[in-house]
Amino acid sequence: MDIKKRTLGNRAEIQVVGHLDAYWAPHLGAALNDTVRQGSHEISLDLSEVNFMSSAGLGVLVACHRQLQAIRGTLVISSASDQVLKLINLSGLKDVLLHVERPVPESTVAAHPPPPGPKRGETFERAEGTFELFTLSQGSKLNASLIGDPALLRGCRFGKQNCSTHAFEESTFAVGVGTLGDRYEDCERRFGEFLAASGAVAYLPTDGTNVSDYFVPAGSSVANVQVCYAATFRGLFAKMARFESKKDLRSVTLTQLAQAGLELVGAEKLGMVIVAETTGLIGAALRQPPTKPVSEHAPFKFPEVRSWLSFTAERAYAHSLALVVGLVTRGDPGPLGSMLRPVGPEPDLVGHFHAAAFTYRYLQKGEIDLKDTVRSLFDNDALQGVLHLLSDNRPMEGVGESEFVRGAIWMGPIS
User: Fold this and answer.
1) For a FRET experiment, which of 85, 115, 208, 317 has its CA 20 to 30 Å from that of 92?
2) Structure pTM?
3) ω before 150 within 30° of 0 (cis)?
C-alpha cells in the first residue's frame, strides 16, 4: 500500500493506493493521526485506486471520522473504487463517509450554512513556539491557599489529626497528597499524589495496586478527598492560550510553558491548568503512604528513598494527552513557599505541578471550555497514571523535564 499526502492549510488530501487490509489498516490509521496532530482537521480521502478494503480498513476510517467529528473536523471520501463503494454501502455508512464533489445550489447553502469555525485569538510568536491568546475574564484573579503542613512529609509523620476532608468544587483546583474517601480510617493506607480540576479528582493509591483511580461528579455529587497537604487555587481564569511547539524544536518544556504563562498574563504568581499532547513526563510518586511510622530519614534520604519513591528513569507516557494542574511563581513565593520547588534550571522560578496522563485523542482548535475538556478526558479516555512533575537537570545523567507538543493552557494571576 502507498499513501500520498498533500496539505493545504487546515485541509489535507490523502490518496491511498493498493490493498487496505488488516495489515495495512494500522499504517493508514497512523498516517491519519499524524495528519490531525499536525493541524489538519479537514481530511479528504481518495480511495479510487484501492483494489481491496477489508472491515479493518473501514474501521480505521470510521474511528477517525468520529474523532474528527467530536472536534468539529471532517473526514470524507472524495473518490472510491467499486470494491470500496460496495463495502461502504453494505455497511450502511454511505451518508457518513462518502462525499461527491459537485456544485451545491445556493438555496441549499442558505438553508444549511456550514458550522462556524473556531474562535481565533491574538497570536504571539516565541522562541519555543506559537501561542494564540484568548481573554476569558478580564481582571479576574485566583485565590490560593495551603491545606495542611507539607513539612510533615519528611519522616512521614501524618496522622488523623494532620489530615482533613475536602470537597473540591468545579471552581477549585488542587495538587497535593490525598486520597478519595469519607473517613481517615478507610484511607490511611492509600494516600498518594492527587490533583483536582473542574470537580474531577485523580490520584495514585499507595496500597500496592499501582493503578490510578479517579472520581468524576454526576449531577450535584462532589468527591470527598482526605488530604494530608495540598496547594489550592480557586476562581475564574483570566486567560486561555493554545500553543504549538516550533517544528524544528518538536516540543516545549514545562519551564517554557510556565515562563510563557507568566509573561502572557503579566503576573508573578500564576495558577495553571494544561491539557496537551506530551512527548513524555518526568516525575515521581509515593510508593507507600506517608501515614506509616518510619525513620526520620524517609522518604527522601538514601537508602529509604528507594522504597518510598518511584522516579521516571526516562520520559513516561509518551504521546499521551496530559492534564496538568499547578502553581508557579517568580521571585518570593510568599505563604505558598513550603509547597513550591524549582520548576527548571532557573532558581527563581518555583512551582508545584501534578499530571494525569490519558490515552491520546484530538483536541478541537481555538477556544475550548475547560470543564467540558476535563470531563471528556475522564469520560472517554483511559487514565494511565498520576505523577508529581519534577525537573532532572543533573549534568550528563539528568533526563530533563516534561515536554509537550501542542495543547491548551488556562491561566490566572494569583492574588
Assistant:
1) 115
2) 0.84
3) no
Give the amino acid at 210. Answer: N
Amino acid at position 16, single letter: V
- Tens digit of each residue's pLDDT (9 = 90 or more) over 79-93: 888 888 888 888 777
Q: Cell digits for 125? A: 510568536
- Cβ contacts of 261 within 8 Å, gap of 6 or more: 241, 270, 272, 328, 409, 411
* CB distance 167 to 178 below 8 Å: no
Q: How many helices (H) and strands (E) does the chain have?
A: 9, 23
Please classify residue 397 by burial: count the beta carbons closer than 10 Å to its beta carbon, then call 0-12 exposed, 13-18 middle and 19+ buried.
exposed
* Confidence label for 115 from pLDDT (cuts 50, 70 and 90): low
β-strand pairing of 349-358 with 383-389: antiparallel
Alpha-carbon distance of 395 to 392, in angstroms, equals 9
Element (H, E) at 329: strand 320-330
Q: How far is residue 169 from each of residues 114, 220, 373, measured CA to CA in Å?
A: 37, 10, 16
Instruction: Report helix angle 55-70 to 82-90, nearest 10.
Output: 70
Q: Residue 205: is it exposed, middle or buried by C-beta count within 10 angstroms (0-12/13-18/19+)?
A: buried
Q: Buried b / exposed e across 147-162, counting CB within 10 Å, b at 16+?
A: bbebebbebbbbeeeb
pLDDT tens-digit profile of 178-205? 999 999 999 999 999 999 999 999 999 9
